[in-house]
Structure prediction request, 742 residues.
Amino acid sequence: MNLEQDQAEQTIDEIVASLGDTVGETRVENPKMSATGVDVFYADKQAIYGVDLDIANNEVIAMIGPSGCGKSTLLRCLNRMNDTIPICRVTGELTLDGEDIYNKDTDPVLLRARVGMVFQKPNPFPKSIYENVAYGPRLHGLSRNKADLDDIVVTSLRKAGIYNEVKDRLDAPGTGLSGGQQQRLCIARTIACSPEVILMDEPCSALDPIATAKIEELIDELRENYAIAIVTHSMQQAARVSQRTAYFHLGKLVEVGDTDTIFTNPSHELTENYITGRFG
Amino acid sequence: MNTSLLILLICVITALAYVMGRTRAQRYRNSGNPADHPHSLPRYYGYMVALWAGLPALLVFCLWTMFQQKVLTGIVAASLPAEFHALPSGQQDLVINDIKNIAIGNMSQSAADSIRADAAARYKSLIELAVWLKAGLALLVGMVGLLWGLRSVFPAKRARVFVERAIMFFLIACSSLAILTTLGIVLSVLFESMRFFGKVPFTEFAFGLHWSPQTPIRADQVGSSGSFGAVPIFAGTLLISAIAMTVAIPFGLMSAIYLAEYASKSVRAWVKPLLEILAGIPTVVYGFFAALTIAPLLRGVGESIGLSVASESALAAGLVMGIMIIPFVSSLSDDVITAVPQAMRDGSLGLGATKSETIKKVVIPAALPGIVGGVLLAVSRAIGETMIVVMAAGLAANLTINPLEAVTTVTVQIVTLLTGDQAFDSPKTLAAFALGLMLFITTLILNIIALRTVRKYREAYE
Prediction:
């Protein structure tokens, strides 16, 4: 029994080893966030193998790959959301503006205010639309008075492109909105904390095509002010919204490069197979 | 023919009906003719025929058993001579009782006069006849039902729909049993209370400040005036419940939050059952814990800081009661807190909230309806608790809000009123029903208020 398991693990390790080094340029000039040799373990099971990757300012980087390839796990390392999972262990170096975010002195709470996150399923709090957006600024004391807070809420809703749809009903519950509106509300909620990086974990997977198009438009606008990393299962979406694309396979970063290059002229065989739909 | 044999026979007929119904449907199915293909699976035709055979027979059996006694007694009574009918109804009952006892053999015939002995013989023969008639009728109805059911086994018959509907009615009957019982209890309490309010004016009961239910048994008895002002005992109930909730809500809620959000799996697996053991300790044990340990302790502490504490105090009873109901609050709150989706927590943590901020601002508001439900259950438990109060808070109906004095509660008074030696129609015993009614109304109002509050402030997720 044990022997069999060992063998099975060995084969996975062998496959991972056979994938070789990452193809393409993992580094950029003046990276906002940077990962170097990151390994992630869930208990004894290794989920990510030695990933090097930079996230640049004013750029959208798309992370693609088959299910279970570790792209969401890596994303959740970037704002230490994995801390909430007791069995999860992260080694290697992850920096924000050159500072190690897994340093003992780094406060994960402050980090998450600087590196915001939008989740797969829209998860507005069961509170009013206004309260949803005001939640972060209130926590972090970003406003001096009520007028200030009103201002932050309105600006964030505007930036998220949902203000015109909800301006008459800011007191209505956020859970009463449609799926796409809820997701834009969650983006507004994230923006309201004035983050520097926004992480998006399959933000459109629960939405219809029209709502998806709106979010994609929004992501393109947000790029002007934030560094954005997006995990997606839709290759069309990656091609539409991102400037760089990273392809993950079995916990390894296989290839990374300009989105145009990756989608028109991939270098690695696995990347080519995936984007042409031969598996995944 | 005795009852168990009859029931067994009905079961046999039902089983037979099932087999026959299924076989007949199966024959249609096997015929291969598309027009003869039955609507439902064969077993549903079996169920249908079984229902037709079993249910009416059981119904006859139950109705007959319910009314047999009454009808037979009526027949026997009608045959008794005119002197019997001239007797007052209480004595008539005695005579009937004698007759029944003789018939069963509990009373020797030699002790009875000839009229009673004759009546007893008649009663006995009537019972024997009735038993056979009952068995015959039930079995006949069963057989007729079986034949009727078999007649309705034909391809177009929608047996599955029939069975589904029968199941629905069965479920309705089960749920209405609880409702009808509640209704019956409320009505009986209501009527007894009306009798009480016929003797003691409602205003005196509801607004009177003095409770002393000792009414004189004899006319020349002294010192028992009887006054039924219920305010002191309701005040006592509220005081003790309030103390208990002040203990139970914070401690229960905090331990629920710890268990649901902070405790590791292994700690939770140990602590939760341990906490629930608290709910399994008999209240009488809590009672003497309160009376023998807590009350003297409070008295000692009170004396040392210059307060006078009664040896039986509302505080002692309330504190122990609060500890007793901690598991109600914590266990239910723990369940609803765990049920709040992880996405809510992730969303809050992802915005840079700390764990406690997340709990305070997102998790608890989302779980609030369930938490209030748990608290409500605890409140009704506190109001209804009797044993601890009897032992630790005493029987004195003082009107006070000082928790260091002895008070009493509604349930305790109901017990003391009904364990007395007075006639069952005296104001003293009837007062118990009035108290019960008032208690019921009070808890009902509390529940309605709580439900409305929850509906107003609930933050529903999903």
Chain A touches chain B through 29 residues (CB under 8 Å). DSSP finds eleven helices and ten strands in chain A. The beta strands of chain A are 31-42, 45-56, 60-64, 88-96, 99-100, 115-118, 197-201, 227-231, 244-249, 252-258. The two ends of chain A are 30 Å apart (CA to CA).
